[in-house]
Amino acid sequence: MKPAIALEGISKSFPGVRALSDVSLALYPGSVTALIGENGAGKSTLVKILTGIYQPDAGVIRVGDTEATFPTALAAARAGVTAIHQETVLFDELSVAENIFLGHAPRNRFGLIDWKKLNADAAALLQRAGANLDPTIRLRDLGIARKHLVAIARALSVDAGVVIMDEPTAALSHKEIHELYALIERLKAEGKAILFISHKFDEIFRIADRYTVFRDGTMVGEGLIADVGQDDLVRMMVGRAVGTVYPKKLVEIGEPVLTVSGYRHPTEFEDINFELRRGEILGFYGLVGAGRSEFMQSLIGITRPSAGAVKLDGKVLVIRNPAEAIRAGIVYVPEERGRQGAIIGMPIFQNITLPSLSHTSRSGFLRLANEFALAREYTSRLDLRAASLDQDVGTLSGGNQQKVVIAKWLATKPKVIILDEPTKGIDIGSKAAVHAFMSELAAQGLSVIMVSSEIPEIIGMSDRVIVMREGRIAARFERSELTAEKLVRAAAGIEAPPEGRAA
Amino acid sequence: MADAQLSPRNIPDRLQGRGARLLKSWEALLVIVAMAIFLGNSLASPYFLDPWNLSDATFNFTEKAMIAFAMALVIISGEIDLSVASIIALASTAMGYAVQLGFDTPALVAVGLGVGLLCGAVNGLLITGLGLPSIVVTIGTMSLFRGLAFIVLGDQAFTGYPSSFSWFGQGYVWWVFSFEFTLFLLLAVIYGVLLHKTNFGRAVYAIGNNQTAALFSGVRVGRVKFILFLMTGLMAGLASVCLTSRLGSTRPSIALGWELEVVTMVVLGGVSILGGSGTIPGVVLAALIMGMVTFGFGLLNVPGIVMSIFIGLLLISVIALPILWQHARRHFAH
Questions:
Q1: Which DSSP category does A193 fall into?
Q2: N or C: more exposed end of chain B, with fewer CB within 10 A?
Q3: Residues 277-306 of A with CB under 8 A from B
Q4: CATH number of the domain that residue B61 is part of
Q5: Per-residue confidence (pLDDT) for residue B6, from 0 to 100
Q6: How many domains does chain A have?
Q7: Which residue of B has its CA nearest to A358?
Q8: Complex-level ipTM
Q9: What is the value of pTM for the model shown?
Q10: The last residue of a domain, from among A191, A222, A238
Q11: Is there a contact between B198 and A355 if contact means CB atoms under 8 Å apart?
């Protein structure tokens, strides 16, 4: 079978970083190809080359039999390549139909937009995308999952032969994911070539026909999904076997370090009491919106609790802002990396030293040599991949940005570190590195609070778990009594089945 | 076989040396523009190269530049202060009023600086305390402060400043170096060190690039911003002392429209109007360029309105040039 589009020998470099070197990829009509690789392996760069945003330094793009170049995004669209991105690019203030047909709306004979046809066509496309939506409502009134379906309808509105889906299920619910699968099956039946990028293996095995694996900017394997197993793919991705066992070390749990009592907030949480001990990893599990992040942020002084007391090493603390929390030795690695964690636009080393400036500087004056030394120490401990330390942190991949953010907080040498969803949206290799590092920190006597919504991570890493529900502590479990079922029940407020019922 | 650049160990501190970074900088472009204008002026008028003429010429930018240094920090932090010219008017009016009460020169200076600080504190409190957007607050206080000056003065003018007061705007420290120009140089160094060599300056950049992340990283965002607005107020007060001293009188229309010239100077100096980047050397160069253009045109008897047209064109072209240059390079590369 002849590929619908083929990339051959593509290379692309950015200042100091080789993003892709001599990679090839072929997409076949009526077939789903999964593109697999860690963050920073070069997947996004490849997508940007396919959609005309980047130009390759070397290599050939073939559409059908002819060689093509995509100097602009429009040229790629004309060649029949369309992409649905991780973060959809849509317009909140426009209607659903306007979003779908933006740039190529049907016109009437006066050259004005034919609204009737626009809305009718949009309704038909939405139907195909599996969304029963009124095309005239404003996009802002839709939830994130439905916005995603609008983006898919938009991709269908151009008659594309090649559809790229970059983590399309990241924001979708279970039911919507199944609708998406059905849609992909229909697109396959129509003979479209689909490139499917995902970190989730169950999806890849469910929907893909072929796979291509990238590692560090090179292609390390390709073939039919039917011929490989999950372990083979993981090995190709990371270049080594990754144990599914969590690297939790057995640590002698010490004396209480942090004691929280009677913490409450008028709207977000209430009656929070717990103790955190030296060397302990305390998991905080709960559904989204259970008040975990809000509570953690009040602990470091972002929001003020209405009542409650904190003791650190037996001394009562008053924390009014993050600066005081850092000084006391409590740090918080926030959930939203791009908004709360990394300062995009500033160099890596300045990101890392920002909370530690009082240590690297002398009487308020910067000491760059000290800053670089600190940044070097922590970037090498976290195995950061970067061209130089004065590179803008925004040029790094997601996983590497997360390493910079964690390095930033560790460089303050805290007593207590709170990690809020530390492995959300990062690849398996980086995830394993973060877990190993967390375990290492606890072994060195640091106390760790880990907020996570991933049950395997909570069970694998925690010494103890606190489950929160609607702003209150719903349950506490020791490591020995943890099961996935107990966690889910506690988080959702489902009564445990009565025990000892007669068989 | 591992690519050296992807190696996790030994990440170099910097890829480019200091020289290469300087050559590619906005400041390098400004130096070229400044030299071109300097050359053009010396060819166009035989009077330009006279040291005393040049010294006189500095008066048309030193007062604005004092404010521009503080404004640069405000804009880098992602805010703006449009009330500075009105602060000059209110401070000048207060000094004129104080003259009527028989204040001596040191007391007058204290009144000028004090009113500046007070106005800055009002802006700072409204912006950081109530969380209002700075552009709205300072457009409001722009009308408020100048309105107060109008109420006090009407269509009158305060004169009768003591003769020792005239030194700030008309005195010389050494040879052709006026008090104002010396103050400009001194403030350039102080602000340059503050922005580029201190923790405070780093915090200003951090806030301008990502205010939320800066807050999470322990930067006292509110306090830093409050200090920045205090500083612009103080600088406007200082400029008011110099300007009032130089003119020898106060009218309510004093320094009308200066806020835009100050912002122009800052943006021409390479400070991003969106915040997050820019340097003090850039602002110094922009001040010199605007001063030389005004002076050169003055020597050639070009009317004031033509000068503002030229400054406007200069601003647009200096910003457009690097973008056009990139387009051209990309175009010819294919």
A1: E
A2: N
A3: 300, 302
A4: 1.10.3470.10
A5: 45
A6: 3
A7: B199
A8: 0.87
A9: 0.77
A10: A238
A11: no
